[in-house]
Amino acid sequence: MTSYAAARPTRPARPDARGDAGPLFVLGAPRSGTSLVYRALALHPRAAWVSNYHRRLPALPELGALGHVARLAPERRRAVWFGPGGDDAYRYASRRSLAERFFPQPVEGEPVFVRRGAVPGAAPGDPTVDVAGLVRDLERLRRSAGAAVVVSKRIDHNRRVPLLAEAFPRARFVVVTRDGRAVTRSLTGVDWWPDLELWWDGRARVLDRVAQGADPAELAARHWLHETEALDAGLAGLDPGRVRHVGYEELVRDPVAVLGATARFAGLGEDGAWAEELRRLSYPDRNRSTREVPVGVARILAPSLARHGYR
């Protein structure tokens, strides 16, 4: 199996006089490996990120300084961010102790963007978006963390790429792609899937569509299709030099090399201690049995799989 992500050369971001290369936005459909890339990059000492505290208090970007607290306890950080086995970057709050929930950690942080009107689908020039305020917020976050680059991951970024690209002219985008058959299987296995609102279907919940007779696996396949199509449309007008593509398959096969190249692209640079920390994590390949999908799912996915280089 191959991915279109492997062969696209990209040039590294160049920090400006302040050492700021612009934010790095991690994009990709849900269950594609975006959380793994995000948290792995957030381990870098030159990275700032939206924490669980900043998400609750989006008007206080200075909470980015809590990243220093997390770095003081590397073993605890590894266990909280990636689980006891170091192989679970996407962990549910219901599975965590109270102490784990209070430990500073990278989160998606949608309130940080919604607070400034940057809702999914907002376009450049939308007067309801406080672009200057959003730019100030991320700069305050970066400075409070003493970092070079703000790394932000949010699935809804897929539908606001043009807005982010215009608001942050130095921003870079890393796109994580995974076989849609594996994503479909993964989506139907997570506990939040039945309650998910399908933005492409009038915000109907999955469980309501299933009650009306829809097949949950086919809904998951369509969700991957719509997310990837929205992302492709958003990226279409960007300078290719601002975009790096990472295939999930390449990531789990050679994680330190792939993440190292991504860090250089983002302007984070080399760091030996960070690379060693990456080696302490586990990267299991969860793309098992991706070819064994129902006929209806295969029919939905086929055109987009081919376009993205999957056979």
Automatic annotation (TrEMBL):
Q: Where is the composition biased (Low complexity)?
A: 1-10
**Keywords from the UniProt entry:** Transferase
Lineage, top-rank taxon, reads Bacteria
- Per the record's keyword annotation, is Transferase included, yes or no? yes
Instruction: Name the Gene3D superfamilies for this protein.
Output: P-loop containing nucleotide triphosphate hydrolases (3.40.50.300)
> Is the keyword Transferase in the record?
yes
Family annotation (InterPro entries): P-loop_NTPase (IPR027417)
The entry lists its GO molecular-function terms as:
transferase activity
Region listing for Disordered, in residue ranges? 1-20
Q: Where are the transmembrane segments?
A: none
Pfam families this protein is in?
Answer: Sulfotransfer_3
Q: What is its EC number?
A: 2.8.2.-
- Which principal EC class is assigned to this enzyme? transferase
Report the protein name in the record: Sulfotransferase
